[in-house]
Amino acid sequence: MYTAEDFKNGQVLLIDKPLEWTSFQVVNKLRWAIRKAFSIKKIKVGHAGTLDPLATGLLVICTGKMTKQINIFQGQDKEYTGTFTIGSTTPSFDLETEIDKTYPTEHITEELIHTTTKKFLGIINQFPPVFSAIKKDGKRLYEFARAGENVEIKSRQVEIKVFEITEIDGLKLHFRVVCSKGTYIRSLANDFGKAIDSGTHLSELRRTRIGDFKVENALTIDEFINELPLHQ
Hints:
Blueprint: H1 4-9, E1 12-17, H2 23-38, E2 45-47, E3 55-63, H3 70-74, E4 78-86, E5 88-89, E6 101-102, H4 110-118, E7 122-126, E8 135-136, E9 139-140, H5 141-146, E10 156-169, E11 172-179, H6 185-195, E12 200-210, E13 213-214, H7 221-226
């Protein structure tokens, strides 16, 4: 059973983030639950790497003194699985926004799909999505995007260590990616679509690993809260 001192001295919690929750909401929920369980006025809680609301999977949550390790955890490789949908794009590169363009897909073969994945292996330059939380001139990019303002985005170097299509189901491409910190899978989807002379958007995303931390060892939010003293 956890104690108040456990959380103050520092815990690393593995949480399986549910769909449509922001990473910030998960942190707030856990902080509230810990404070309530132990009648603590203040406790540091933070996460090691944001997941978009439409993504599920592993969030590494640090409490107390372990929040000092967040940068170390953030810098580790990450593994994702999910689905690209070919033939259409959205402004956000995922399903946060609606499809705005459609593209031909008749020319796309399984060979073309598998060959194209190899072009993205290694160190590549990637433009973050305009619908992202990266800051420019003191504002987050998605604030410019939602206001309809154009903004110049600089590319960044990222490393794709594994990129494989695990199943092709019509226009749905199921994938697995292992990548460095700062990689946007949404941008990978968009760039992949261009590389096959079509359009692609990210329709499903799950983070399965950060460094040595794996989602199969993670708890749901409710499972974690049920382990706290008030729920024993």
